[in-house]
Amino acid sequence: AKARGGNSFHFYEKKLNDMFEEEMLLDHGLREALLKDQLVLHYQPKVNTFTGAICGVEALVRWEHPELGRIPPDKFIPLAESSGLILKIDEWVLLEACRQNKAWQDAGLPKIPIAVNLSGLHFSQTHLVELIQQVLEQSGLDEKYLNLEITEGVFIKNVDPVIDTITRIRDMGIQLSIDDFGTGYSSLSQLQRLPISNVKLDRSFIHDIADEPKKAAVVKAIIDLAHSMRMTVVAEGVETKNEMNYLKQCKCDELQGYYFSRPLPADEFSALLDSEDDW
Ligand code: C2E
Ligand code: CA
Ligand code: CA
Ligand code: CA
Asked: Which stretch is the leader sequence (predicted)?
């Protein structure tokens, strides 16, 4: 470029190049990861607040890089969203999660719904409904054991077509959750427009809830409102007994977090599910 010369500019340019290179490498690596079976799923239980029983599970993707080791989703999901590759990743996750859940059921483990995270991109770019139908057919999983988690961001633009798609998915008998609730722009009043049966309270609301009266009040209000609209509520990121007790007091339906279990590899999760069934 014309402005070449100043050291600071060179520095800036180099940094940009590095960033670009790193992204290129990651993007290329991710495409390979999809082809070479480097993606794996870990599974985190959702627990019934009042019985303590495992009542659901969330599939969370990990990238096992041959040289770099395990790369957490926060490192590659944002990049995959900007390149569009997330569509392919989510497709893989959806099929893998449904197959795994079906395999657990066929092995005689308790039947629970499996939750899969879907990027908002699916709502503008693909035939989501057909994809889901295909995955259910391929995996043989009954639709009532699939739960899709979508973030509020999905509802910011083009609300009507999104609601239309979500209604079709709900009418298929699939459970829908609104993920990270409270962090985005959608307000409580908007909730009632959405054909959704479950709200997941973002973990930023749960942290230290027992010691922060304002947070506690917000959480209680959200739970009550969701209940008044016949939605159930899951709290994410429950890490302590105090947090659990407060959420129980508020009648939050389900809890998820390190206090109960970290996300586990498939074999460890199935052992947990199996041992629970013998209690
Ligand atoms: P999320 O959907 O909000 O998932 C919950 C995240 O919180 C997970 O992080 C989980 O490991 C973490 N977590 C669970 N319990 C606790 C706790 O008690 N304390 C704390 N501090 N954290 C807890 P993870 O697995 O790193 O995933 C991060 C995000 O990446 C997810 O947030 C989700 O937005 C995205 N993600 C993961 N898998 C997929 C996927 O297959 N597709 C898409 N589109 N996004 C995914
Ligand atoms: Ca989620
Ligand atoms: Ca969250
Ligand atoms: Ca058993």
From this structure: none
